[in-house]
Design goal:
Helices cover about 40% and strands about 20% of the residues. It has twelve helices and ten strands. β8 and β9 form a beta hairpin. The chain is elongated and about 70 Å long. The termini are far apart.
């Protein structure tokens, strides 16, 4: 018989959030694959779980998958856990899941704690439609490109962020989404110092100019609330850029303004502004006789 891979959610802070079903699975599988065995052993010790444990993380997952597949094909059962919350979200568990599916091995999720959903439902921002982006890229270009693509997004957006990067992230939000965009910062979810802060991007920046970010953050950002998104041709966008430049805006400011109302990103609009023809530039800055 083919074995089964269980995706077992673990607490994100409060150990009481471990489910009865999750505990039963951890007690009865042949092997537990954990992101950090030292961290998971504390949970297992608390609940007196004696199951064998092995590491599975971003630095060794490629080498582990073949072994796991062999064991599963021989009928063993494996529970995959992450350090906190639901596995296969923002971690290499995804690769193991895909490999199991490709080899017709059962994959069964065991639900439980999840920081993104917990943060969302208590944020006070719309919950009917949302997207999850996880951690932003650390490389500047990839980060800027992603945020530009999200500028016109109307659904609520969920991010994860570490405390040492929070201020930079809020500054980036101000540049792309504007200072008035609503935001909720959920900190240390389910833990002793759990905290929800709600306000605007501007007030969040002001808050952390006076306070040191502490703990892990789940950021819930309101979507773009502008009612009308326009489908403009490149020529129409150039005409709008010219109007705003004539009003004294820079090309960067004009691009950010127009992006709020179109399907194009700020970066795409800015590129159009760099391609204004000679005659268009002469209209903006006429030659003096």
């Amino acid at each position: 018989m083919i074995g089964t891979l269980y995706l077992v959610a673990t607490p994100i802070g409060n150990l009481e959030d471990m489910t009865f079903r999750g505990l039963r699975i951890l007690q009865t599988v042949d092997l537990i694959a954990a992101e950090d065995t030292r961290h998971t052993k504390k949970l297992l010790h608390h609940y007196q779980v004696k199951t064998s444990i092995i590491s599975y993380h971003e630095h060794n997952h490629q080498g582990r998958i073949a072994d796991f597949l062999t064991r599963l094909q021989q009928g063993e059962t494996i529970a995959l856990v992450t350090d906190a919350g639901t596995p296969a979200i923002s971690d290499p568990g995804y690769h193991l899941v895909i490999s199991c599916i490709d080899h017709n091995i059962n994959v069964i999720p065991i639900p439980g704690a999840n920081a993104a959903i917990n943060g969302l439902i208590a944020s006070g921002l719309p919950t009917d439609k949302f997207i999850f982006e996880g951690f932003l890229p650390t490389k500047k270009k990839l980060r800027n490109d992603l945020l530009s693509q999200l500028q016109g997004e109307k659904r609520t957006i969920i991010f994860y962020e570490a405390p040492h990067r929070l201020r930079k992230t809020l500054d980036d939000f101000a540049q792309v989404f504007g200072l008035s965009r609503k935001i909720t910062l959920a900190r240390e979810l389910t833990k002793l110092h759990e905290d929800f802060w709600r306000g605007t991007v501007a007030s969040a920046i002001a808050l952390y100019q006076e306070n040191q970010p502490r703990g892990e953050y789940t950021i819930i950002l309101a979507g773009n609330e502008n009612k009308e998104i326009l489908e403009l041709s490149p020529q129409q966008i150039k005409e709008e850029i010219i109007k705003l430049l004539q009003q004294g805006m820079s090309k960067s400011e004009a691009s950010q303004h127009i992006a709020q109302f179109t399907t194009l990103s700020r970066r795409e609009i800015y590129r159009l502004s760099l391609n204004l023809s000679t005659s268009e530039n002469e209209t903006l800055f006429p030659t003096q006789d």
